């Protein structure tokens, strides 16, 4: 599997030992509601990016995450491009902050890695809740088209109710509007950006502010296959911020 160049926002940097640091980053192209964690930055590459930096990183796939293998989503084996990008562990082999003016990374890797690079840039940074809303609005648009096409096939004597694709699109807008109304009734008004939730105290304050009961929180976790918050956070790559996003998506704000 090739390396990937993509936009990232550095959320956390922690020295793991003298040889490497571990990075948490928001990577829109990875299509995850959670920060991507445990990204390795090797000390031999120089100083790691700074928290808050936004730029383009070259990401090297290292291995499939055991969590997804254990769940049966992936099989044992080397990354081959069939996985979701968030289902892998990654090395960040270079990083160019947006403020760089010479087009060259201030964080260059050493070594002679010849792996080819595919582009995954051009993604827009969005709040996780807004990204969830947009994803579902796009899904509504696709579903509305298919529902209209299927309905059109119910014409008498095998004929189609709609004469051309323009008619299908026009009729699908009616269906899409109704689907969007249902989505809006669950999500309410467009979500405000979540606060930066980094630890259990932040999460407790946030859940108290939202007025969620303990039983509501447990049920939301159970619906996702977790017994409680401890079991959720025990999974590699899961964070308290990710838990907050899960609860917002399940319980609303």
What does this structure look like?
This protein has about 250 residues and is α+β, with helices and mostly antiparallel strands. It folds into 3 domains: about 5-120, no CATH class; about 130-185, no CATH class; about 200-250, no CATH class. About 35% of the residues lie in helices and about 20% in strands. The protein has 7 helices and 6 strands. The chain has helices at about 65-70, 130-150, 165-185, 200-210, 215-225, 230-235, 240-250; strands at about 5-15, 20-25, 35-40, 55-65, 90-95, 115-120. Strands 1, 2, 3, 4, 5 and 6 form a 6-stranded mixed β-sheet that branches. A hairpin with a 4-residue loop joins strand 1 (about 5-15) and strand 2 (about 20-25). Helix 5 (about 215-225) crosses helix 7. The two termini are about 40 Å apart. About 25% of the residues are buried. Mean pLDDT is about 80; it is low at about 100-115.
Summary, kept brief:
The chain has three domains: 117 residues, no CATH class; 60 residues, no CATH class; 52 residues, no CATH class.
Number of helices: 7
The profile of the biggest β sheet is:
6 strands, mixed
Count the beta strands: 6
Classification by helices and strands: alpha+beta
Series of H and E elements: EEEEHEEHHHHHH
- Share of residues in helices: 25-40%
Low-confidence stretches: 100-115
The pLDDT mean sits at 80
The radius of gyration is: 22 Å
Distance between the termini: 40 Å
What is the total domain count? 3
Strand fraction: 15-25%
Global outline: globular
């Amino acid at each position: 599997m090739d390396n990937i160049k993509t936009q990232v926002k550095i959320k956390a940097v922690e020295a793991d030992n003298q040889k490497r640091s571990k990075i948490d980053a928001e990577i829109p192209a990875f299509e995850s509601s959670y920060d991507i964690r445990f990204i390795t930055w090797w000390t031999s590459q120089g100083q790691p990016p700074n928290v808050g930096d936004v730029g383009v990183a070259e990401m090297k796939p290292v291995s499939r995450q055991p969590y997804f293998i254990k769940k049966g989503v992936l099989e044992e084996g080397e990354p081959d491009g069939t996985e979701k990008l968030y289902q892998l562990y990654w090395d960040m082999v270079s990083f160019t902050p947006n403020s760089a003016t010479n087009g060259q990374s201030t964080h260059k890797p050493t070594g002679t890695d010849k792996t080819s690079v595919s582009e995954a840039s051009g993604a827009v940074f969005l709040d996780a809740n807004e990204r969830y809303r947009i994803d579902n609005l796009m899904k509504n648009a696709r579903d509305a088209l298919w529902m209209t096409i299927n309905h059109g096939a119910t014409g008498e004597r095998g004929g189609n109710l709609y004469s051309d694709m323009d008619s299908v699109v026009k009729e699908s807008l009616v269906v899409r509007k109704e689907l969007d109304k249902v989505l809006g009734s669950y999500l309410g008004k467009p979500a405000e950006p979540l606060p930066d939730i980094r630890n259990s105290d932040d999460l407790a304050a946030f859940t108290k502010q939202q007025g969620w009961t303990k039983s509501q929180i447990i049920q939301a976790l159970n619906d996702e296959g977790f017994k409680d918050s401890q079991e959720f956070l025990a999974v590699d790559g899961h964070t308290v911020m990710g838990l907050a996003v899960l609860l917002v998506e399940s319980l609303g704000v």
